């Protein structure tokens, strides 16, 4: 188990990531419904595509920033960027400007490329033997933001009514607020120094290794492919499932429960999968996660298996991303 001081020190990081991940994931899942409301249902998958591409590009930029200036500054900047993107998305959707909504989705995706690196900050803050557990706790905390959005669904609906817009659009405004709270919380986080970990700190390389050198390291290329494929499959299924549920006649309440359940499945089992992968190894996590994602894709269309699709996609993603 993690020592008690580590939990106390990591709490602001965990809370900030919980709110940010929940807010951003809910916004991503609702984006397909927003596009349908804007009269652009044939392009309902475009926001999630833009977010994935922007996140992939920005991850390297935020990573370089964090190497130079530290995790704290990089994560704080990512949260602020995400808040700006979510607000722009809200404003674009409310005024019926699809390009503005897509621009907001792009900025929110770019921000995710930064604040998703909080998992590395958590892993760097604990001894190697419990890193899976630390990441599992971080993933479990990420459910909190989604549950918060779900619990305040009636209030969001009232706010949307007063703003003369839908609850799905109002969700983007709520996401902007939660991301600003995350930016404030990260200011209270104190990163661990090398003395807090077991053993001597690893020596820094004389110069940063290039991406070709990095990919030639044992296990790196396979891990990159596994993470990329799992993210692609999960985002596609995650973003289109609410629209599919809407087509089946489900209202906002059941769709909100579906979204919350999906995010809970993605992150809540991290407390189990993290220690399990610590014990059984990365290959077990990759293989089991891939099998579950294949099953999710196979059950994505029939209405009777939509729940199975959602469960398998979130569990498969969690197995691959828990280390």
Characterise this structure.
There is one protein chain. The two termini are 17 Å apart. Helix content is 77%, strand content 0%. It is globular and about 50 Å long. With 323 residues, it is mainly alpha-helical. The chain has helices at residues 4-37, 46-69, 71-94, 98-115, 118-124, 131-141, 143-151, 153-162, 167-186, 211-215, 220-247, 252-267, 270-280, 282-298, 306-321.
For the record, what is the CATH homologous superfamily label?
A: MFS general substrate transporter like domains
Taken as a percent bin, the fraction of beta residues is under 5%
Distance between the termini: 17 Å
Following the backbone from N to C, one meets helices and strands in this order, namely HHHHHHHHHHHHHHH
Q: How many helices does DSSP assign?
A: 15
SS-derived structural category: mainly alpha
Instruction: Give the rounded overall mean pLDDT.
Output: 78
Beta-strand segment tally: 0
Could you tell me the CATH topology label. Growth Hormone, Chain: A
Task: List unreliable stretches of 5+ residues.
Answer: 1-5, 194-206
Provide a short characterization of the protein structure.
The chain has 323 residues and is mainly alpha-helical.
């Amino acid at each position: 188990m993690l020592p008690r001081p580590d939990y106390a020190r990591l709490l602001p990081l965990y809370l900030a990531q919980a709110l940010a991940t929940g807010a951003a994931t809910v916004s991503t899942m609702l984006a397909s419904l927003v596009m349908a409301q804007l009269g652009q249902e044939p392009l309902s998958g475009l926001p999630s595509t833009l977010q994935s591409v922007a996140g992939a590009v920005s991850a390297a930029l935020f990573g370089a920033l964090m190497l130079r200036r530290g995790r704290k500054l990089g994560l704080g900047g990512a949260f602020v960027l995400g808040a700006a993107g979510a607000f722009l998305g809200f404003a674009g959707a409310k005024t019926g400007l699809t390009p503005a909504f897509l621009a907001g989705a792009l900025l929110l995706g770019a921000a995710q490329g930064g604040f998703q690196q909080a998992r590395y900050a958590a892993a760097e803050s604990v001894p190697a033997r419990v890193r899976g557990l630390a990441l599992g706790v971080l993933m479990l905390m990420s459910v909190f933001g989604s549950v918060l959005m779900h619990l305040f669904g009636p209030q969001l609906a009232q706010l949307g009514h007063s703003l003369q817009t839908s609850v799905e659009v109002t969700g983007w405004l709520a996401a902007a607020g939660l991301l600003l709270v995350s930016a404030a919380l990260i200011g209270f986080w104190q990163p661990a120094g090398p003395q807090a970990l077991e053993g001597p700190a690893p020596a820094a390389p004389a110069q940063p290794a290039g991406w070709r050198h990095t990919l030639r390291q044992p296990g790196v290329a396979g891990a990159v492919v596994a993470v990329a494929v799992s993210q692609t499959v999960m985002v596609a299924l995650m973003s289109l499932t609410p629209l599919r549920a809407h087509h089946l006649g489900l209202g906002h309440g059941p769709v909100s429960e579906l979204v919350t359940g999906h995010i809970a499945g993605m992150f809540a089992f991290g407390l189990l999968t993290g220690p399990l992968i610590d014990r059984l190894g990365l290959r077990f996590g990759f293989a089991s996660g891939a099998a579950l994602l294949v099953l999710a894709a196979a059950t994505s269309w029939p209405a009777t298996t939509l729940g199975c699709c959602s469960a398998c996609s979130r569990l498969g993603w969690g197995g691959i991303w828990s280390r």
